[in-house]
Predict the 3D structure of the following.
Amino acid sequence: MLINCRAACKINLYRRSPKCMKHKNRKLLEQQVEELRQQLRHSHETEASLAKMHVELQAKTLHALEDERKTDSSEGKVLIAQITTENEKLLQERRRLLQKITDQEETPWSTRSTIATLQSRVKILDEENMGLHESKLQLSSHVPTSQRAMRSIHAPNMEVRPSEQTGYRS
């Protein structure tokens, strides 16, 4: 009878064993599925985090470029204002000298050397005035170029896929 009892216990153990194994296997598979889901969630969170960091970096870069453009533009405007002021001074000096020439022409012939000196001075001032005027035009042409460059930077060609917006893929 003891042998029968042992045999019956072994038979019951063998009968239960496949059910236990199935149950254990199912639990292991469920654990693996859950681990994979967690890894997938973490992957999506990392993707979303990287996309967010990319957008923030782009915004900072744009802001820095905008600040730089404003600085360049304001420096250019200051330089243009200085050149314009200098140009005005030169024009006033030219008028004054031309008036002197006119006054001198009314004086006797003995002052011809003074007139020649003044005329040469007027010629020099005219040349300097033209140089300043060309510098002003060159600087003025740089301002629109930098503004076009900034507009092209403000319109980046980025597409955001719907899966990147939510952080999950379909």
